[in-house]
Amino acid sequence: MLRAVLALLLLSVNAAAWPQAYPARAVRIVVPFATGGPADIYARFIGAKLQETLGQPFVIEDRPGGGSIVGTDVVAKSPPDGYTLLMMSNTHTVNETLIPKKPFDLMRDLVPISGVNYSDLLMVIHPAVPAKDLREFIELAKSRPGALNYASSGPGTPYHMAGELFKAMAGVDIVHVPHKGSDQAGNARAGKVHALGTTGNRRSPVMPETPTIAEAGVPGYEATIWLGLMAPAGTPRPILEKLNAEISKVVNAPEVKEAWAKQGAAPMAMTLEQFDKFLREDIVKWAKVVQISGAKVD
Questions:
Q1: CA–CA separation, 232 vs 78, rounded Å?
Q2: pTM (two decimals)
């Protein structure tokens, strides 16, 4: 009887003490992409907000390489104590099929915390390309298979897969030219460019005059870039729940929604279970695109 009471007392002390104490020191958010890209920018924003509310530094560490593999592996092999987090995107759900031989498995070695936001992409061409709209561009690409290129921020990124999805659905042969980051892909298109369409399922509030790719010539087309946070598998649920709640407060704040809307981004707050389901469904979605397009990583 005495042992039973003692065990109950110890259990209640442990349950009450450590979850409320988190975080007791600095938290690291690893960004497995290039500095200056969307993941880096929004990780710094989220980190700064969490630092304000939780009272500990949230340090951003950019660890690009291997199409997000390098930085992600760092997190997957970190202690599951809530002090190392991963800023991730649909690059990760794509890579589950595109790069089957990885040192980790996304849904085995990491656990979901929360979605952050999603944004449409914009398809543009150089003014020298003789096409005034998407239909003319598709006709041009079909008449010159393999002669046109498109830039992305690297293999497996949302930019790459949006291009591969476009190729498959439009029936065109355009050569993928990867860059080291989304900022460098943008530099490759420096100067004035001509917008052909946005990639969402409805017109972007940032560019309402630009049609979606679906309405401009490729019915059913839709591809976005989204961001989320994960932690090493085994991270205590109370920590995950605390982070999830705080992130939801940040992304759903009216002033944040307003600021992000001007940037073409929308909040993507979800419960732990909703984000888990979302990730698993996204893995299946992009597996089909990878298989149909024949996309490969050299």
A1: 7
A2: 0.81
